[in-house]
Amino acid sequence: MDKIKQLSLSQLGLYNPQRLSDEIVEDLFVVRKKYFQLLMDKINKEKANSIPQHHLFIGQRGMGKSTLLKRIEVELRKKESKFIPLLFPEEQYNLSNLSEFWLNSLDAMADALELVKGKEDVKLIDSKVKELQKIKDEDALAKQAFQFLIEMSKKINKRPVLLIDNMSFIFDRLNKSEQHTLRAWLMQNNAPILIGASAVDIEDTFNYGAPFYDAFQISYLNKLSFDELLEILNNLAKLTNAQELLANIHEEIGRLKTIHQLTGGNPRTAVMLFKIIVKGFSKEINDDLEALLDEITPLYKARFEELPTQLQIIVDAIALHWDPINLEQLRIETKLENGQLSPQLKRLAELGWIEKLDAYKAKGSAYQISERFFNIWFLMRRSSRRQKKELYCLSKFLETFYGDDLHEVAINSLSVKSKNINQITYKLALAEVVTDKNLKKQLTDLCHNELKEEAKINPDIYEKFGLLNNDKSEYLKLEKKYLSQLKKNKQDSNVWFKLGYLYQSHFVKDKEAEEAYLMAIQLNQEDSGSWNNLGNLYWHNLKDSKKSQEAYLKAIEIDEKYSLPWTNLGSLYMDYLKDYKKSEEAYLKAIEIDENDSYPWNGLGNLYRNHLHEYKKSEEAYLKAIEISKDYSYLWNNLGNLYQDYLSEYAKSEEAYLKSIVIDSKNYIAKYNLVFLYRDKMNKLQDAENIYKELKEEKGFEDSYWLNKTLFELYKKNQGVADEYLINALKRIDDKLPNNTQDDWWRFGGVVTKLGYGNWFLNILEKNEFNTILAPYYVAIKAITEKDGEGFLNSKAVEIREPARKIMEIMKKY
């Protein structure tokens, strides 16, 4: 078996990548690749006798600094390299002066040579080190140790690359005179190249006049993007031979985005998260968060307890405050005077525990914990019941806020009339996997209505595709029939196809559906339809985007004039893989094959509107889709949203919504959009009320109903009645904003603040504890009402600040 598939969970190093083998280090290294390659290119471009360019990268704890240094060591140790990597321990506790630094360098060289069987050279270094240690004069010892390192590098014909973790520790231990000497030696021709890492900015590298001013090319390791987190999780699943987990990973996108936000985009935490995923996601996100906290407790507890007592008191106060805390607040919490606090805060910043921000409505700086997941851990292990509740509420809010991309895909699918049975198949597959019951019903009803139309032309369509009615017994009979037919003739590829479709659309038998489609393909190599359906199955049911992409491409390879897999590929690229250029290419290819299919035109309209922000192109695409399927209500609704929210062409928006409603008088989404347009954009309050009277408290949209009712009263300045209606809306959402009505809450917040009722709204949220339950939403509204909105946002914990800023930007559009 391949070594990659033998990697066990116990081999996934969390704290010490130096214990991992070279092969595992290479296999695990999937992020920071661009920066790694940049460093390697710069190192390799150093000429034999050059004055070296030194590098320093800065990143918080857990951001992958040690792993990056280890990866560089592995690469430089390869036979063709002209360098020898000298990797130092993270903490060089014996270091007290410059001579110890160079003696440690010689030890690191001996270690490196021992790995490549350089026994004689190792003996030579050990012997020389013993001799050097007899020198009493530290300056002379440092000089001779450095000179011997240079001699050894010439002997082995490899230039040393010093790989030093925790560079700030080195600068702390060396006095200014030694730092000047070290810089002078490192700036000589053919000197060792220094690659350093630090958890904090080092003043000695950027303060003018400091020994190492401008000596390093400095870079920063920022938090992982969500895509990079997914890349790590996918890679770990493959390396541990646990590809079946890929479905779980992609099924819980909202949950993973929440954990990504709360953990601060930390690579180390990503590995811990993978171990949690292996055990299976819990029903509640907070249980997964607790499991993650348990996993990291030994590390955080030990690190905190290593701090001196006074530093523990200060960290305790900052962590429990959660939001950035200013000096006056900190003085009150710790009962320490400013003269005591200042040097200790400086020390904590140097150690990477805290970072400074501008204080909000206070003099001086504010302070927050640098490693955000440590702050979360501390709150959960040390805080009051109230603070724990705040954190739990935040996790549930974020899970909904970051949501499930499938919901948007399903909504978009309502917008297009199916042109053929394959498109109906696609929608039914979506209906099986969306979690929103109301949306599931809409999709299912839509498909059955479309099938009725199809049956007028092709009466056998129901039996042929196993689409009978909602009576489960009928599907069981059909399954029995297909299995009986296959018992008589296993070579009938068409029956295998129909069985696969039956399992995909009406049973929770995804693996059986896959096997049936693959059997159909095995029997008929030219079966592009099975490949296309397999692509849908892999995407929507099995959550394997790579296999889905491969299946669609195989369908295209078999039949290059088959437009549907191109359309599906466009949707996959847009809604799941976030590759918008490829999505555009796929949609355009589908249109080239069949320009009279409204489905890719609508997809292209969504792509241009929501992702590429090319609104005129979006308009052209929607209009073309409507030209093809002019009696399709949701297409007109999409066009209306474009005109209202992006182009501010309100008369055109009104016309589009009205056409949508004429086609389908039950399209309450279009009606709600028209209500917002009339009331909040066109100042047609009476027209808005007339449309609103047609609406009822529809299941799944109860909160939207009461939000609109509230706004009507606010326009009439009936604040007391509005109070009651808003509380009704809040009662309908429990402890999170529903996926399908989030945009109504953003719009409500935007309109309320513009009407001057922002503080009224905040007051109701506070009285009903929704300032905690919907914390980022509350903070976003509060920021809009504040004179210095950005300053207010920066006074809040990062975990709340970042989603609040996104929500605020959305609300400002309204």
Automatic annotation (TrEMBL):
- GO MF annotation, one: ATP binding
Q: Which InterPro entries match?
A: ATPase_dom, P-loop_NTPase, TPR-like_helical_dom_sf, TPR_rpt, WH_DNA-bd_sf
Entry's Pfam families? ATPase_2 (PF01637), TPR_8 (PF13181)
Source superkingdom? Bacteria
Identify the residues that the record assigns to the ATPase domain, covering every copy.
Answer: 49-271
SMART domains found in the cross-reference section: TPR
**Protein name per its UniProtKB record:** Tetratricopeptide repeat protein
Instruction: Give the species.
Output: Flavobacterium psychrophilum
